[in-house]
């Protein structure tokens, strides 16, 4: 399979979930690389950068409405960066299954065969034993509602691609860090709590004895833009750094970036409570092969950018 990347794909690139952490980095990277960008989200946000913005709840929109929107703006590719962790099964089903089904039907109803880049999750594989690098040949076995619904949405897209209705590819990303990481994530929540510390306050923090693969959101955006062009259809591609980092090391790096005195923090051991178990590490060789992509941003730099974004350049938002 060729890994040669051509110029910008014909037509505008639509980013669904454009106001969230991943979506805003996608818009920035697409604009930086010369694409026309249509931003789509339920509500506008002042930080969103795009050539056009349309407020739309895709999970509740009729396929005909989606098709008309995509045709009106001459969209050739859709990057689906919607969805969040959710708090109920119903919310996760709406965000991860219903939305994908409506999106596929809407794309299939347009005047051309559209490309869909689905931002999936490493948690679609479910828990794996410590030390295992997760490659694309691993049979998914998610145990949580999040992993199950994300997997179902991804598999629907792949099935509809095999049926010839759309041209789809799924990027299964590891945990994300970097600027504007939402407070719904562990690191984002720690940032928010550190920012709220007053003089003399002590932060009690529960940290599980877990090892996680984290990728900077800007590296993830580069992978998605590569997937817009790469001749990869109907496949899953894992995106990560390819290394499992102890959570305590990440927390320590965040303390260093924040300039927090050790006396201001009390770390407590905690049970692993995760969407994907105590270990995640992506095998990213396939991404290098088919997308020509590798991560470039060191975790220390990523954590520092997370702190600086929360410290005043822009506020954290939940995607």
Automatic annotation (TrEMBL):
Superkingdom: Bacteria
TM annotation in the entry: none
InterPro entries: Epimerase_deHydtase, Lipid_A_modif_metabolic_enz, NAD(P)-bd_dom_sf
Pfam families registered for this protein in UniProt: Epimerase
Listed CDD domains: SDR_e
Domain NAD-dependent epimerase/dehydratase: 13-240
N-terminal signal peptide: none
PANTHER family in alphabetical order: BIFUNCTIONAL POLYMYXIN RESISTANCE PROTEIN ARNA
Protein name per its UniProtKB record: Nucleoside-diphosphate-sugar epimerase
């Amino acid at each position: 399979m060729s890994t040669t990347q051509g110029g910008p794909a014909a037509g505008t690139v639509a980013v669904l979930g454009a106001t969230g952490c991943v979506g805003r980095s996608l818009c920035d990277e697409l604009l930086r690389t010369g694409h026309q960008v249509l931003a789509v989200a339920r509500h506008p946000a002042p930080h969103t950068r795009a050539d056009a913005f349309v407020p739309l709840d895709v999970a509740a929109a009729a396929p005909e409405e989606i098709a008309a929107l995509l045709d009106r703006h001459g969209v050739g590719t859709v990057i689906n960066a919607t969805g969040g962790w959710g708090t109920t099964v119903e919310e996760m089903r709406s965000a991860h299954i219903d939305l994908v089904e409506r999106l596929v039907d809407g794309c299939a109803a347009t005047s051309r065969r559209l490309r869909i880049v689905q931002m999936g999750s490493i948690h679609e594989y479910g828990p794996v034993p410590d030390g295992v690098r997760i490659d694309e040949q691993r049979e998914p076995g998610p145990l949580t509602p999040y992993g199950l619904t994300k997997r179902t949405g991804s598999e629907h897209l792949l099935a509809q691609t095999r049926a010839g209705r759309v041209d789809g590819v799924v990027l299964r990303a590891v945990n994300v860090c970097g600027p504007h990481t939402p407070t719904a994530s562990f690191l984002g929540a720690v940032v928010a709590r550190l920012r709220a510390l007053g003089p003399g306050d002590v932060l009690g923090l529960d940290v599980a004895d877990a090892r996680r693969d984290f990728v900077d959101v800007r590296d993830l955006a580069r992978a998605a833009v590569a997937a817009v062009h790469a001749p990869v259809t109907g496949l899953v591609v894992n995106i990560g750094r390819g290394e499992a980092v102890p959570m305590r090391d990440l927390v320590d790096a965040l303390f260093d970036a924040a300039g927090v005195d050790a006396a201001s923090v009390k770390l407590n051991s905690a049970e692993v409570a995760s969407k994907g178990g105590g270990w995640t590490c992506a095998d990213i060789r396939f991404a290098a092969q088919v997308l020509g992509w590798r991560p470039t941003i060191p975790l220390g730099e990523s954590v520092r950018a997370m702190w600086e974004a929360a410290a005043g350049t822009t506020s954290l938002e939940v995607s």
